[in-house]
Amino acid sequence: PALALVSLILIAGAALLIFLTLLGGAIDKNPTNQFYFLEANTAGLGDAEPVTRWTFWSHCSAMDGRNTCPGVRPAYPFDPRRNFNTDDIFGGNKYYLETRFMFAFVLIGLFFAVCALFLGVVALISRIGSFLGSATCSLALFFQTLTAALMTAAYVQGRNAFRAVDRRAVLGRYNFGFMWAAVACLFLATIMLCVGGVTGKKDRGYSSRNTGGRKFFARKKSTKINRDRGSFIDPERQRRMEKEDDD
User: Fold this and answer.
1) Closest C-alpha among 171, 113, 163 to residue 143
2) Deepest in the core among 85, 90, 164, 223, taking most CB within 10 A?
3) Distances in Å between the alpha carbon of 99 and those of 54, 137, 168?
4) What 8-state DSSP symbol labels residue 42?
5) How far is CA 173 from CA 20, 42, 66, 155, in A?
6) Where are the strands (E) in the chain, listed by range?
């Protein structure tokens, strides 16, 4: 139960981190309006603002350290050439596809993380729940790792491309920290649920063997006592019968 409880906390933490990352750029409220993947100097590029931030939902301008997103739509791609309607900057299908698939994978990973969260509750009382939770959590880990890997590949390359043309660009520390922390939480939770299921089986098996052994020795002891008791009774009865015969 201790391992299941810790894994439950880790899964809940991972789901919360993923959810906060998804909210960045979608809701203009603190603190989610500080979450972004990449911030870059985009002054003079087509219709871009002087400073642009990319999220799951849009490319946003930055005012006083906050995102200002005029319109949002899901699975917004990171592709500066398409985003700003200009050929004066890098872009292409590589960035476009990486960030589009990233959105799909993060939703799938979040779905399995929520399922693993419910199965983690069952794992508190059942060994089968531990194994099912571990399997579901491993699926969440797989898709979350894909998401984090695509995020890193797309936005680190994008940052380097901006810097290559002498434009300031920085990665969003919150989004990157949240996404990779979620991977770590899901990894640890998967291991703990699996170990919890295995050790729970061994503990119950050891307890059963001990109980069976006690019953076996109890039967042997009881049989021995009865046998000894019979050995005392039989000679006395024999003497009584001999005395009656003499009378």
Assistant:
1) 113
2) 90
3) 10, 23, 21
4) -
5) 13, 20, 14, 12
6) 38-41, 51-54, 59-63, 66-68, 169-171
For 28-52, how does the pLDDT look when each residue is reduced to its tens digit (9 = 90+)?
888 999 999 999 999 999 889 999 9
Q: Which amino acid is at 125?
A: I
φ and ψ of 44, to 5 deg: 85, 5
From residue 7, give the alpha-carbon distance in Å to each of 45, 57, 108, 129, 200: 47, 31, 20, 12, 15
CA distances from 216 to 211, 220, 228 (A): 9, 6, 19
Q: How many residues does the chain have?
A: 247
**Residue (of 117, 75, 113, 111) closest to 96 by Cα position:** 75
Q: CA 65 to CA 63: how far, in whole Å? A: 5
Single out the residue of 49, 47, 67 nearest to residue 57, CA to CA.
67
Residue whose pair of structure tokens reads 């969003």 in the numeric block: 172
The enclosing H or E element of 140 equals helix 127-164
From CA 105, how far away is CA 109, in angstroms rounded? 6
Residue range 75-121, pLDDT digits in tens = 999 999 999 999 989 999 999 999 999 999 999 999 999 999 999 89
Do 116 and 11 touch, CB atoms closer than 8 A? yes
Alpha carbon separation from 157 to 1, 95, 150, 152 (Å, rounded)? 44, 9, 11, 8
